[in-house]
Design goal:
The chain is an all-alpha fold and 231 residues long. Helix content is 68%, strand content 0%. The protein has one domain.
């Protein structure tokens, strides 16, 4: 079944991404998982930027695959399409953060990088990298609320609407508090704060993929159509 295959692809891609978040910096000289952003592993001056580019492409494509699966499951109209569209934007932004828009340098490792960044002396791809990351993160956070709207009134998804809404509110509160607690830019703990955010995103994508696998797996034994009822 197409939806199950897409959900499995999403789950597999996120597991690869999760492993890279945890262990990708082990072979990078001077890199700190607590201090440094994950994307620094793909900077032009990194030891093996192609590894980061490959992994984020896999992860981004897996997020787009999940969005496609959710579209196939959803009712027609804005309510059914908005959440998957935001998730797809997140996947595309993640892909762009790889080889299309790499960072030129790593400001926490290269002492002159931050000064050149503020002076506007770096490539346009470097600045686009930051905007793509911000856009993808914002789209994913909004997708939680959009999916809560989509789940409402669909008996197949039970109380997923309330759970998604609660998760979205909790995410806003937690990451706002984390930002102010660690200071603007997260100081020397940016890598840790970012990893908390990235793992949270993996959990969101993974839960949606597992829910689709469960929903469409039951069809084999119970019969009938698991698709959403028409609005």
């Amino acid at each position: 079944m197409t939806i199950r295959r897409l959900a499995l692809a999403a789950l597999g891609g996120q597991l690869v991404w999760l492993a890279f978040i945890a262990f990708g910096g082990l072979w990078e000289p001077g890199y700190s998982e607590i201090r440094d952003a994950v994307s620094f592993l793909g900077a032009r001056d990194a030891a093996s930027p192609w590894v980061f580019d490959t992994v984020v492409a896999i992860s981004g494509l897996s997020v787009v695959a999940l969005a496609a699966a959710l579209v196939l499951d959803a009712p027609r109209g804005l309510r059914g399409r908005l959440g998957p569209a935001l998730i797809a934007i997140t996947g595309l932004a993640q892909i762009l953060d790889g080889f299309p828009f790499p960072a030129d340098c790593r400001r926490t490792i290269d002492a002159g990088c931050h000064a050149r960044e503020l002076a506007g002396e770096l490539s346009w791809q470097h600045y686009a990298h930051g905007w793509a990351y911000f856009s993808g993160g914002a789209a994913l956070l909004l997708s939680v609320f959009a999916m809560a709207w989509r789940f409402r009134g669909d008996p197949r998804w039970g109380r997923a609407d309330a759970l998604a809404l609660g998760a979205g509110i909790a995410a806003v509160v937690i990451f706002t508090a984390l930002f102010f607690f660690t200071g603007k830019g997260f100081g020397g703990h940016y890598g840790l704060a970012q990893r908390i955010a990235l793992v949270s995103a993996v959990v969101w994508i993974g839960v949606l993929a597992l829910a689709l696998l469960d929903l469409y797996g039951r069809r084999r034994f119970l019969g009938g159509s698991p698709r959403a009822p028409s609005p």
